Amino acid sequence: PEGSEEAKTFVHAFLKRSMPKMKAEAIQEMLTRKAVVLEHYPKKKTKQKRKKTKGFTAKQRRELRLFEIEPEQQRYAIFLPLHELWKQYIRDLCHGLKPDAQPHMIQGKLLKADLHGAIVTVTKSKCPSYVGITGIILQEFKHVFKIITKEDKLKVVPKLNNVFSLELDGFISYIYGSKFLLRASERSAKKFKLKGTIDL
Protein backbone atom coordinates (compact mmCIF):
# COMPACT_ATOMS: atom_id res chain seq x y z
CA PRO A 1 0.00 0.00 0.00
CA GLU A 2 0.94 3.61 -0.61
CA GLY A 3 3.03 5.09 2.21
CA SER A 4 3.93 1.71 3.75
CA GLU A 5 7.66 2.44 3.53
CA GLU A 6 7.14 5.74 5.28
CA ALA A 7 5.18 3.96 8.00
CA LYS A 8 7.92 1.35 8.37
CA THR A 9 10.57 4.02 8.61
CA PHE A 10 8.51 5.91 11.20
CA VAL A 11 7.96 2.77 13.31
CA HIS A 12 11.67 1.90 13.28
CA ALA A 13 12.63 5.46 14.22
CA PHE A 14 9.97 5.56 16.92
CA LEU A 15 11.08 2.25 18.44
CA LYS A 16 14.72 3.28 18.36
CA ARG A 17 13.84 6.49 20.20
CA SER A 18 11.63 4.69 22.69
CA MET A 19 14.13 1.90 23.41
CA PRO A 20 17.54 3.54 23.11
CA LYS A 21 19.36 0.74 24.91
CA MET A 22 18.27 -1.95 22.45
CA LYS A 23 20.14 -2.76 19.22
CA ALA A 24 18.43 -2.59 15.81
CA GLU A 25 18.57 -6.41 15.47
CA ALA A 26 16.75 -6.88 18.75
CA ILE A 27 14.07 -4.40 17.75
CA GLN A 28 13.61 -6.19 14.41
CA GLU A 29 13.28 -9.51 16.25
CA MET A 30 10.60 -8.05 18.49
CA LEU A 31 8.67 -6.78 15.44
CA THR A 32 8.60 -10.25 13.89
CA ARG A 33 6.94 -11.59 17.05
CA LYS A 34 4.33 -8.80 16.86
CA ALA A 35 4.86 -8.00 20.55
CA VAL A 36 6.41 -4.68 21.45
CA VAL A 37 6.86 -3.39 25.02
CA LEU A 38 7.93 0.22 25.04
CA GLU A 39 10.28 1.30 27.77
CA HIS A 40 9.69 4.53 29.57
CA TYR A 41 12.45 6.62 31.08
CA PRO A 42 10.87 9.28 33.28
CA LYS A 43 12.85 12.29 34.28
CA LYS A 44 14.11 12.14 37.83
CA LYS A 45 12.27 14.63 39.97
CA THR A 46 14.35 16.43 42.51
CA LYS A 47 12.59 16.44 45.84
CA GLN A 48 12.32 19.81 47.44
CA LYS A 49 13.21 19.76 51.10
CA ARG A 50 10.57 21.23 53.30
CA LYS A 51 11.76 23.99 55.49
CA LYS A 52 10.87 23.40 59.11
CA THR A 53 9.42 26.37 60.88
CA LYS A 54 11.69 27.12 63.78
CA GLY A 55 10.15 28.23 67.05
CA PHE A 56 11.78 30.21 69.80
CA THR A 57 14.56 28.60 71.80
CA ALA A 58 14.35 28.46 75.59
CA LYS A 59 16.87 31.30 75.80
CA GLN A 60 14.82 33.47 73.42
CA ARG A 61 11.64 32.77 75.41
CA ARG A 62 13.41 33.89 78.57
CA GLU A 63 14.72 37.03 76.89
CA LEU A 64 11.27 37.89 75.51
CA ARG A 65 9.73 37.08 78.92
CA LEU A 66 6.91 35.18 77.24
CA PHE A 67 5.83 33.29 80.35
CA GLU A 68 6.23 36.06 82.90
CA ILE A 69 3.10 37.54 84.49
CA GLU A 70 3.29 41.28 84.99
CA PRO A 71 3.03 42.45 88.65
CA GLU A 72 -0.16 44.44 87.96
CA GLN A 73 -1.76 41.25 86.62
CA GLN A 74 -0.90 39.21 89.72
CA ARG A 75 -4.30 39.51 91.38
CA TYR A 76 -6.43 36.63 92.60
CA ALA A 77 -9.74 38.26 91.58
CA ILE A 78 -8.65 38.49 87.92
CA PHE A 79 -8.34 34.71 87.69
CA LEU A 80 -11.57 33.69 89.46
CA PRO A 81 -13.46 33.55 86.11
CA LEU A 82 -10.73 31.18 84.88
CA HIS A 83 -11.46 28.94 87.88
CA GLU A 84 -15.18 28.93 87.04
CA LEU A 85 -14.34 27.87 83.48
CA TRP A 86 -12.09 25.12 84.82
CA LYS A 87 -14.87 23.79 87.07
CA GLN A 88 -17.25 23.57 84.11
CA TYR A 89 -14.54 21.89 82.04
CA ILE A 90 -14.00 19.21 84.72
CA ARG A 91 -17.76 18.64 85.13
CA ASP A 92 -18.07 18.06 81.39
CA LEU A 93 -14.97 15.83 81.38
CA CYS A 94 -16.24 13.68 84.25
CA HIS A 95 -19.90 13.74 83.12
CA GLY A 96 -21.18 15.83 85.99
CA LEU A 97 -19.25 14.37 88.98
CA LYS A 98 -22.34 12.44 90.12
CA PRO A 99 -22.38 10.84 93.61
CA ASP A 100 -22.44 7.34 92.11
CA ALA A 101 -19.35 8.02 89.95
CA GLN A 102 -16.42 5.68 90.53
CA PRO A 103 -13.58 7.58 92.27
CA HIS A 104 -10.77 5.83 90.38
CA MET A 105 -12.36 6.78 87.03
CA ILE A 106 -12.55 10.44 88.06
CA GLN A 107 -9.01 10.27 89.43
CA GLY A 108 -7.76 8.86 86.12
CA LYS A 109 -9.37 11.71 84.17
CA LEU A 110 -8.07 14.36 86.56
CA LEU A 111 -4.52 13.05 86.13
CA LYS A 112 -4.71 13.87 82.41
CA ALA A 113 -6.82 17.02 82.70
CA ASP A 114 -5.55 20.55 82.21
CA LEU A 115 -5.02 22.09 85.66
CA HIS A 116 -4.76 25.75 84.63
CA GLY A 117 -7.45 27.46 86.69
CA ALA A 118 -7.74 24.78 89.39
CA ILE A 119 -7.62 25.78 93.07
CA VAL A 120 -5.08 23.55 94.81
CA THR A 121 -3.70 23.30 98.35
CA VAL A 122 -0.33 21.94 99.41
CA THR A 123 -1.30 19.33 102.02
CA LYS A 124 2.06 17.61 102.59
CA SER A 125 5.61 18.67 101.87
CA LYS A 126 9.18 17.91 102.90
CA CYS A 127 9.54 21.68 103.21
CA PRO A 128 7.07 22.83 105.95
CA SER A 129 6.90 26.37 104.53
CA TYR A 130 4.95 25.09 101.50
CA VAL A 131 2.22 23.37 103.54
CA GLY A 132 -1.06 25.30 103.49
CA ILE A 133 -0.39 27.32 100.32
CA THR A 134 -3.71 27.59 98.50
CA GLY A 135 -4.42 29.31 95.22
CA ILE A 136 -5.28 29.11 91.54
CA ILE A 137 -2.80 27.42 89.22
CA LEU A 138 -1.78 29.99 86.63
CA GLN A 139 1.03 28.08 84.95
CA GLU A 140 2.19 24.49 84.98
CA PHE A 141 5.72 23.58 83.99
CA LYS A 142 7.53 20.26 84.08
CA HIS A 143 8.83 20.73 87.62
CA VAL A 144 6.77 23.54 89.18
CA PHE A 145 3.32 25.07 89.57
CA LYS A 146 2.87 28.83 89.59
CA ILE A 147 0.03 29.61 92.00
CA ILE A 148 -1.70 32.92 92.78
CA THR A 149 -2.95 33.09 96.37
CA LYS A 150 -5.87 35.05 97.84
CA GLU A 151 -3.29 37.52 99.17
CA ASP A 152 -2.36 38.31 95.52
CA LYS A 153 1.05 36.66 95.89
CA LEU A 154 2.51 34.57 93.10
CA LYS A 155 4.07 31.42 94.54
CA VAL A 156 6.33 29.03 92.65
CA VAL A 157 5.80 25.61 94.21
CA PRO A 158 7.91 22.62 93.09
CA LYS A 159 6.09 19.39 92.30
CA LEU A 160 8.83 17.19 93.75
CA ASN A 161 8.24 16.06 97.34
CA ASN A 162 4.87 17.84 97.56
CA VAL A 163 1.30 16.52 97.74
CA PHE A 164 -1.47 18.76 96.41
CA SER A 165 -5.21 18.46 96.92
CA LEU A 166 -8.01 19.88 94.81
CA GLU A 167 -11.72 19.89 95.65
CA LEU A 168 -14.68 20.12 93.29
CA ASP A 169 -18.35 19.48 94.11
CA GLY A 170 -17.40 17.57 97.26
CA PHE A 171 -14.90 15.33 95.46
CA ILE A 172 -11.34 15.69 96.82
CA SER A 173 -8.42 14.45 94.73
CA TYR A 174 -4.77 14.25 95.72
CA ILE A 175 -1.88 14.85 93.35
CA TYR A 176 1.51 13.39 94.22
CA GLY A 177 3.86 15.90 92.62
CA SER A 178 6.79 13.46 92.52
CA LYS A 179 4.78 11.29 90.07
CA PHE A 180 3.61 14.36 88.15
CA LEU A 181 6.91 15.61 86.75
CA LEU A 182 5.63 16.14 83.24
CA ARG A 183 4.57 19.03 81.06
CA ALA A 184 0.82 19.43 80.67
CA SER A 185 1.00 18.44 76.98
CA GLU A 186 2.98 15.26 77.78
CA ARG A 187 0.72 14.34 80.69
CA SER A 188 -2.40 14.16 78.52
CA ALA A 189 -0.85 11.32 76.47
CA LYS A 190 0.73 9.39 79.37
CA LYS A 191 -0.78 6.24 80.85
CA PHE A 192 -0.83 6.45 84.64
CA LYS A 193 -0.84 3.41 86.88
CA LEU A 194 -3.00 3.70 89.96
CA LYS A 195 -0.74 3.10 92.95
CA GLY A 196 -1.09 3.38 96.68
CA THR A 197 -0.12 6.36 98.78
CA ILE A 198 3.49 7.50 98.78
CA ASP A 199 5.22 8.62 101.95
CA LEU A 200 7.25 11.79 101.64
Automatic annotation (TrEMBL):
Among InterPro entries, the record links this protein to: RNase_P/MRP_Rpp29-subunit, RNase_P/MRP_Rpp29_sf, Rof/RNase_P-like, Rpp29/RNP1
The GO terms describing molecular function are: ribonuclease P RNA binding
> Hydrolase among the record's keywords?
no
Q: Name one GO biological process term.
A: rRNA processing
Q: Per its database record, what is this protein's job?
A: Component of ribonuclease P, a ribonucleoprotein complex that generates mature tRNA molecules by cleaving their 5'-ends.
Kindly state which keywords UniProt assigns to this record, in alphabetical order.
Answer: Nucleus, Phosphoprotein, tRNA processing
For the keyword Ribonucleoprotein, the answer is no
Q: What is this protein called?
A: Ribonuclease P protein subunit p29
Q: Name one GO cellular component term.
A: nucleolus
State the family it belongs to.
Belongs to the eukaryotic/archaeal RNase P protein component 1 family.
Q: Where in the cell is it found?
A: Nucleus, Nucleolus
UniProt xrefs under PANTHER family = RIBONUCLEASE P PROTEIN SUBUNIT P29, RIBONUCLEASE P SUBUNIT P29
Q: Give the multimer and partner information.
A: Component of nuclear RNase P and RNase MRP ribonucleoproteins. RNase P consists of a catalytic RNA moiety and 10 different protein chains; POP1, POP4, POP5, POP7, RPP14, RPP21, RPP25, RPP30, RPP38 and RPP40. Within the RNase P complex, POP1, POP7 and RPP25 form the 'finger' subcomplex, POP5, RPP14, RPP40 and homodimeric RPP30 form the 'palm' subcomplex, and RPP21, POP4 and RPP38 form the 'wrist' subcomplex. All subunits of the RNase P complex interact with the catalytic RNA. Several subunits of RNase P are also part of the RNase MRP complex.
